[in-house]
Design goal:
Layout lengths: L6 H11 L5 E7 L2 E5 H11 L4 E3 L2 E7 L3 H10 L3 E7 L12 E7 L17 E8 L2 E8 L4 E7 L13 E8 L16 E5 L16
Length: 209
Amino acid sequence: MQDVLTPMMQQYQRLRKSIPADTLLLFRLGDFYEMFFDDAKEASGLLNVALTKRNGVPMCGVPYHAAHGYIRRLIKAGRRVAICDQMSEPQPGRKIVEREVTQIISAGTVSELSWLDAKRANYLGAIYADGGVFGFAYADLSTGEFRLTQARKRISVRSTTRWNTTATRFCRNRQSSLCANISRPNRSMDSVARRCPRRSLRPERSCIT
């Protein structure tokens, strides 16, 4: 399939593979952000925009100048969005414009204050399991609030929902059985990472009561 794609679509496929599979890629094309293939099929229904085809490839798009509103709707629908921007201007003789993924937005990493509920914290959580140690941290990026704790006992993963994190990332060590069967216990559980760097912080007091 790669042989029959245009250089631009080959670029799209390369960038698409560089982000998590469950993330929608908004690909900048001039004055529009375009989505292709399964991303287009999903986004067209969520955004109520027309789904079309070009050379047999499903696609839909939203205007660049109005993209924030559409991105917000995708985030509100529980999706994670990757923004791919043009890093160079079209030039005569240049086959393709340079593009890069400049940011990935999820419910827990929203920085636009107008998107947030002023009466509710917007926590991004992380859970790490290593052997018999269970660690949990959460932060509100809009206020700088950050809390963490750890325990040497099994704590129900579902019980972490009482902190009302908007998105939670699981980091699990292959040697740990504590979170071995975690998939997505609920909608706020954003993703599972099988490999992630370990950093140690000692909390002044526990946030688990």
